[in-house]
Amino acid sequence: MTAGKIQFAENEGTYVLKFLGEIRLTLCSSLESFLDNMFNDPDFSSVIIDLSETSTIDSTSLGILAKLSIQAKKRFNLVPILISTQDDITRVLLSMGFDSVFVLVREFEGLVKLPMNDLPCEGSTEPATQERVLNAHKVLMSLNEDNRKAFSELVRQLEKGQTSRDKDKNKNGDDNSNS
Can you give the pTM of this predicted structure? Predict the structure, then answer.
């Protein structure tokens, strides 16, 4: 398997994101930042996500894609296009309910060649990463009942861990204020 990376291009407000290789949580900080900037572009008009060269994609990355679609619909009344030509990836997308939030394209001859740029990989703190994982899975749970059942225990554990960290943080903060 090849290490994952995300490439992007933009032409007249249309953004193209191409996911290559293994798409994991480690790329999510960069992806979220990119999506925030994309949605704030006054010329933004559409987005195409190309998974035709994706070998694997984790649930956190899928949650961020689902969030992208939900935001595009809410803010721009737009349903993004998701290209998935590999049966195993398409099967995962369908099982997660992505056909209800994306225009899912299973066959295509290739996009107009645009010069693609690598999305730089940003670092992330552990609490920010945990928050991202939690939010991504909550978005997946909102797509359908199967996802709710599949991820409810994980979300419950992540929220429990978050609460424990917040209590420890407050306790340490209280201890520091007394010294």
Answer: 0.84
